[in-house]
Amino acid sequence: MGYDPFTMPSVSQALPSTPFNPYAEDHNPLAGAGSSYFATQNTFSAPSQPLQYHLYQPIASTRETLQPYQRQIYDFFLPPSLREDLQKKSEAARQVLASQPGVQLPSLQQYHSLVPLDTKLRNSTSSFGLSSWVWKATSRKNGNIYCLRRIEGIRLTNEEAIKAVNSWKKIIHPNIVTTVEAFTTREFNDSSLIFVHNYHPLSKTLAEHHFPVGNNRFGRPAPVPEKVLWGYLVQLSSALKAIHKAKLAARCIDINKVILTDKNHIRLGACSILDVLHFDTHRPVEDLQQEDFFHLGRLILSIAANTPLRNNADLRFPLDQLDRTYSPELKERITWLLSPPPAIAVKTADQLVYDLASHVDDMFVAVSNAQDETLNHLGRELENGRLVRLMAKLGTINERPEFDGDPNWSETDQRYTLKLFRDYVFHQVDAQGNPVLDLGHIISCLNKLDAGVEEKIYLTSRDHQSALIVSYKELKKQVNAAFGDLLKAGNKQQASRGY
Fold it and tell me: Which residues fall within 8 angstroms of residue 418, CB to CB, at 6 or more apart?
């Protein structure tokens, strides 16, 4: 060839300059080509094609190879196990106490609808030295649900003590339960201190998860897999790194204060409480940080030994038994955590995370795989919001009572066609008059309507006296016109917010 067609100025000048709009009603194949066709020495791009809403294209990689006939309805939605888990968490978050005559729970400032989260019927005094209760409550300010921990019967002698919570409010970490605020109250007929933290529904403490009451009565429980222990160690080490970097100390690394919120995802809870309770006990932060390493080692050793270890327990025997089940590397790391710091240097969270580099990589791979799986599931739900809005529009148009002075508004003109389309999508019957329930047909029709494709369908009334052949593109215009009439007559502010 004696010329290069992609460098000719006449070609680029002849192409239209209007950008291509994939959402437009009319899709001209060359519309906007000038903004997309460009050429360099090694690149060339074509204009975007209209979005095909009626087709479901997987957006994430998958390891499963299925034939087209093997696809099921579940392929369009979340897996049943994940949906069930989310629904259980939603139910737990919205759970309320049944009202009883003569019993009324107090409202603590802006928090109301208190629900106890403790499975025990008595208060606990083992962790903080004072009686404590855990509640779930709803905030009047934003409607969110929080976890409230009440420390019973305490009177603060220093007003600056409660301000120690402010430093914890700045720490946002995936392995730390976020602290919201703290305040005092007399709503329980005593002087109580309330700590507010983020609420994670259906969470369990590591003690409840690994040492359930009443299980394995006739045998020793199976040892916890070593990968799980390394996962706990990596997550808590990352939490300590964030805490120590903020010039704070966790002081609550206890098997009853670390909660399991998701599969192998733990969070350090009850932070900031001891800072307020022991505010007058002036101990160097460096010493408290060194104690965090010891408590972390004792927690991992307790789970590895399948035995809850008390504060004053002898740790030498369970430490010597680790060789029977776990690798020398894990024993060495636990020993390093439990040993006192050397005289010439102190332990640091940065050093701990550095020593766990290989296991941090394992956690990174696991988290990345979980993120890919979640993205794949989320892609299945991508179009649900769009279809719900479309169904809401159809619901506001079909079978509508008198509007604009016309009692038959929804039965005339294009509204009647939409009524026939509603029967075509949702009310189909077979030759024997039995209802046809085909979710794939419903999803396909709604997607084609939202896309406004040129495909035509045959609509007929229930008495077979009316029959129409209409395209999805015409139906889409009719939906927009009918719904536009409703928007003009309704409150414009509400309409703009709702749709």
Answer: 394, 397, 398, 475, 478, 479, 482
Side chain identity at residue 452, one-letter code: G
What one-character-per-residue DSSP string does 160-187 give?
TGGGGHHHHHT---TTBPPEEEEEEE-T
Give me 284's structure tokens.
């160097």
Distances (CA, A) of 347 to 175, 341, 342, 344, 467: 21, 6, 8, 10, 82
- Partnered with residue 211 across adjacent β-strands are none
Q: 351 and 487: one domain?
A: no
**Confidence bin at 122 (pLDDT 50/70/90):** low
Could you give the number of structural domains in the chain? 3
Which tokens go with 369?
């795989």
Residues 110 and 37 in one domain: no
Residue 66 domain flag: no
When mean pLDDT is compared across 63-77, 85-99, 130-144, 478-492, the lowest value belongs to 63-77
pTM of the model: 0.74
Distance CA 231, CA 11 (A): 61
Instruction: Give tens-digit pLDDT for 290-328.
Output: 999 999 999 999 999 988 887 777 888 888 888 889 999
Instruction: Check if the beta carbon of residue 146 is closer than 8 Å to that of residue 264.
Output: no
Tell me the β-bridge partners of 266.
260
